């Protein structure tokens, strides 16, 4: 049973994620309005907003997933409140530092801060080192948190049990809950990519302080950057999936999901292949050894298909011809899985080398990753937030009806916003342009359509925010 302290800190995470999400959506809408020529921002403001939006979004949906698995993990093992608190404090400090570099220092190298961009200083000179320090602070907090959760799992389960290897054979003597298996697989990936970020930051600092006597290898830096960036962006989705495996059956009133041999095999495959799928970001780097490009394509299929296959299978089996108790929580899970699969298909299309020649760096890229984030992972986390908030406060019917209406608004807004990206991508509109060249006639009108639908999506998020945060505030004000 979780402690009151854990309930309170989880409430703080939820409130912080929601507030930062709303600000980041507004930045996203401003970007689309600028691309649609409805407002006029100078390019520094546009790229500052893009950098703030991108990194904040990745950060908040990662911590949202971590806060959710930390809360649910207490059902199986004792977790460390101190590690959770350290991560919270360092996240707040890291985000404030990062926002200072973008909003005050005008740092705008994009969330991928691809080498050597951070050294091509077109912003305050202090902004580059402070940006790197902010990443260090965030990475340190998240590393401590991830290692702590993994250590707690390994205190109760042996390594082979944590990875559910005993499930490869029939009738295992010990059962590993799917939640523990997926959390373990994900934490390994998270720790690996955070360690890569440490190496990356050390290399950046080494060059920064060397006064020109040390210059990094650009290809190595790009490999490290995408190993970190691609992996964390994918692992945060898997945190959401761990939550689904734990809660979907519970809220639906159906038997609890178990680890079967195919669930164990699929998630172990995911562990291996997710760490090499990032090579698909380097298809256009022709100096990259060709073998890595082939690994990139194969791993992109192998990382996504087994996990998606077993999850979709499990969800469909759970709902097909079964009377289940639908609530906002499992509806959000269900729609989120659909968003994840559709975005995943978009990603696999782009990760196929022959297609990438056409789609590389077009709006197809934000199209697919916004699909599995804005209509996938975000919904997994909001489902958890909603479920969590209704555990400790009474749930009246009226608010239930309102939340169902909110879901419809969310769907309309989300689908319209994403379609504007997909159609632009299919029409070869490039990504990351603050204003589009006149040759791309469809680009500006599509951006306006994107902004309108994104505003509808924002309305739904605001309603969820007021509804859920009210209950979280009650949890916070309850006696300890
Ligand atoms: C309705 C909500 C959202 C809006 C309006 C929005 C809007 C945008 C826009 C306009 C861009 C720039 C696209 C371009 O390359 O031209 C962008 C980039 C990006 N967005 Fe979103 N977005 C939203 C939600 C999200 C979510 C939920 C995530 C979660 C991870 C996210 C992560 C990113 C990232 C990582 C980038 C790339 C930034 C870069 O290239 O440095 N966005 N978004």
Q: Keyphrases for this structure?
A:
480 residues; 14 helices; single chain; mainly alpha
What would a concise description of this structure say?
The chain has 14 helices and no strands.
List the helices and strands and how they pair.
Layout: H1 4-35, H2 43-73, H3 81-104, H4 127-156, H5 159-162, H6 178-209, H7 218-252, H8 261-274, H9 290-319, H10 328-351, H11 353-359, H12 364-391, H13 397-426, H14 443-477
Helix pairs in contact: 1-2, 1-3, 1-14, 2-3, 2-4, 2-7, 2-12, 3-4, 4-6, 6-7, 6-8, 7-10, 7-12, 8-9, 9-10, 10-12, 12-13, 12-14, 13-14
The structure holds protoporphyrin IX containing FE.
CATH architecture, please?
Up-down Bundle
The count of DSSP E runs of length 2 or more, i.e. the number of strands, is: 0
> Main beta sheet, described?
none
Radius of gyration: 22 Å
Poorly predicted regions: none
Task: Please tell me what the overall shape is.
Answer: globular
Fourth-level CATH superfamily: Cytochrome c oxidase-like, subunit I domain
Explain this structure to me?
This protein has a single domain (4-477), classed as Cytochrome c oxidase-like, subunit I domain (Cytochrome C Oxidase, Chain A, Up-down Bundle), CATH 1.20.210. The protein has 14 helices and no strands. It has helices at residues 4-35, 43-73, 81-104, 127-156, 159-162, 178-209, 218-252, 261-274, 290-319, 328-351, 353-359, 364-391, 397-426, 443-477. The two termini are 15 Å apart. Bound molecules: protoporphyrin IX containing FE. Residues 25, 28-29, 31-32, 50-51, 53-54, 57-58, 61, 110-112, 366, 370, 373-374, 378, 417, 431-432, 454, 457 line the site of protoporphyrin IX containing FE.
